Amino acid sequence: MTDPHRDTGSDPRRQVPRTDAVLADPRLRAATATLGRSTVKAAVVAAQERARRGEIPPASVADVAVAALPERAASLRPVINATGVVIHTNLGRAPLSAAAVEAVVAATGYTDVELDLATGRRARRGRDALAALAHAVPAAEAVHVVNNGAAALSLAATALAAGREIVVSRGEMVEIGDGFRLPDLLGCTGARLREVGTTNRTALADYATAIGPETAFLLKVHPSNFVVRGFTSSVPVRELATLPVPVVVDIGSGLLAPDPLLPDEPDAASALEAGAALVTASGDKLLGGPQAGLLLGAGELVERLRRHPLARALRVDKLTLAAFEATLRGPAHPVRQALSADPAGLKSRARALAATLPGVDADVVRTMSVVGGGGAPEVELPSWALALPAGYATPLRLGDPSVVGRVDHDRLLLDLRCVPDGLDKSLREAILAVRDA
Ligand SMILES: *Cc1c(COP(=O)(O)O)cnc(C)c1O
After folding, report:
1. 427-431: long-range contacts at Cβ-Cβ below 8 A with a sequence spacing of 24 or more?
2. Which atom belonging to ligand 1 lies closest to the Cα atom of 221?
3. Least packed by Cβ within 10 Å: which of 132, 144, 157, 264?
4. Can you give the pLDDT at residue 12?
5. Which are the contacts of 394, defined by CB distance < 8 A and separation ≥ 6?
6. How far is ligand 1, taken at its centre, from the CA of residue 52, in Å?
7. Probe residue for ligand 1, chosen from 169, 174, 176 as the CB with the greatest number of ligand atoms within 8 Å
C-alpha cells in the first residue's frame, strides 16, 4: 500500500514528513514535556505547511519546528527595563525580589495557606503575610490584604459607606490610569460621593459643613500621578481627624513608613499616627511587592471589611501572599535598589558596556530617571544611560529578553537605573545580536 504522505516522488510537497514522525524527534518530545503537546504540535503543523508551500526543504521540518518553539508555555516575555521609569505600569510595575520569587515557587504546589500544620486545623488564610504587614506598621491595630489598591478602596467604600455618603475634595478626584477614575469606582459601590471644595483649594470648613447623618467617612486621596501648583491648599490628615467621622486615606503607592528619598510621598504609618481610621494602598508600587491592596487601621473597621461578602471576591491568591510576605521580610527589593542606585555606579557600568560593544556607535550620557505612575511625580533621579542609534530600538524591543529604552533626539537611551547589574551581560548580548543581524 502506498502512503500518500510518504510519497518519495520528486515534488517536495509530497515528501513532507507526517506529524507523528516529526513529534518523535527527541528535541520536540522534550519540549512537549515543558510546553505542552498543543503548542509543540502547532509549531510542527506550521513547519509542515511551509514545506508544502516549498518554502523549506521537507527534511528540515523538525529543525524549523524546534526553532519556532516559544521559550516558555506562557507568552509574557521578560523585559529589561531600560526606560528609567522605576515603576512602569506597562511593564508590570514592581519587579519581584529574588526572595519573593523563591517564596512564590515554594507556594506553587499544595501549601499550608489555610492550615495550621502544628494542630492540623484550619488557620487564618495568609496569617504570616498579614503578621509581616502588621509588624512593619505597628501603628495599625489590624491589617488586611486584597487584590489591588482599587479593590481595597472599593471594599472600604462598600462595607462602610454603601447607601451613605463619602465626603471627598474636588482636588482629589483622581484618574488612576487607562481611563479608570476613582469617583466612578466609588460610585459603583453604592456609596454617594459628596464633593467639597474646589480643584485647587479645599479647607477644613468645607468638610465640616458637609458632614451630616448620612456621612460614612471622609476620604483623602493622594494625587499620586500629578501635582497642582500655585494657589492651592488641602487639608492634612491630622486636621481632618479632628472632625467627628472616620477618615479613610488612600495613600496610593504603599510606602509603609516615611522614606527620606521621597519626602513628599505619604506613608501608612504617618497617616495612621495623624489619626486616619483606615489607610488603603497598592502592593506593587513603592512597596515593591506583588499586585495587592493593603488595608490598615482600626481593628473594628478592618474586621468589618474582612467579614464583608465582597472580601471573598477580592481575596488574594496564595502566590501573592507568599511574594508579599517575602517582600516585607526579605532584603531590599528591586524597586528600592533602583531608587537608591548610586549615579556614579551607573556611570561606570554604562562606560564598561560602551567599551565592550565593538562596531556599535555607543556613548554614555547623563539622563534623569523618574519614579513613574506609581508615585512621586515631581522626583527626578540623576542617572546614566548608554546611547545607541535609534534604529536599535525596535529590534531590541522585539528580542528575548526584550530591551525597552526610550528614544530621545534620534538616540536610543538605555537608562541603567532599573537594570540590575546582573543583567549587564544580557544587555550587552542583546545589543551585539542586533548589531550582527
Ligand atoms: C495606584 C493608585 C490606586 C489604584 O491602585 P491599584 O493597585 O492600581 O489598584 C488608587 N489610588 C491611588 C491614589 C493610586 O495611586
Report:
1. 427/80, 427/82, 427/353, 427/403, 428/353, 428/356, 428/357, 430/80, 430/396, 430/399, 430/401, 430/403, 431/353, 431/357, 431/360, 431/362, 431/388, 431/392, 431/396, 431/403
2. 13
3. 264
4. 60
5. none
6. 53
7. 176
pLDDT < 70 positions in the chain: 1-13, 374
Q: Write out the chain in H/E/C secondary structure.
A: CCCHHHCCCCCHHHHCCCHHHHHCCHHHHHHHHHHCHHHHHHHHHHHHHHHHCCCCCHHHHHHHHHHHCCCCCCCCCCEEECCCEEECHHHCCCCCCHHHHHHHHHHCCCCCCCEECCCCEECCCCHHHHHHHHHHCCCCCEEEEECCHHHHHHHHHHHHHCCCEEEEEHHHCCEEECCEEHHHHHHCCCCEEEEECCCCECCHHHHHHHCCCCEEEEEEECCCCCCCCCCCECCCHHHHCCCCCCEEEEEECCCCCCCCCCCCCCCHHHHHHCCCCEEEEECCCCCCCCCCEEEEECHHHHHHHHHCHHHHHCCCCHHHHHHHHHHHHCCCCHHHHHHHCCHHHHHHHHHHHHHCCCCCCCEEEEEEEEEECCCCCCCEEEEEEEEEEHHHHHHHHHCCCEEECEEECCEEEEECCCCCHHHHHHHHHHHHHHHHC
Q: Is the peptide bond before 331 cis (omega within 30 degrees of 0)?
A: no
Copy the grid coordinates of residue 188.
Answer: 459603583
pLDDT of residue 74: 87
What pLDDT score was predicted for residue 72?
A: 86
Residue with cell 521578560: 78
Q: How far is the CA of 250 from the centre of ligand 1 (A)?
A: 8
User: Which residues surround ligand 1 with Cβ inside 6 Å?
Assistant: 148-150, 174, 176, 221-222, 224, 250, 252-253, 282, 293
The three-point CA angle 334-339-345 to 5° equals 90
pLDDT at site 7: 46
- Residue 1 confidence (pLDDT): 43
Residue with CA at minimum distance from ligand 1 atom 5: 149
pLDDT at position 61, please? 97
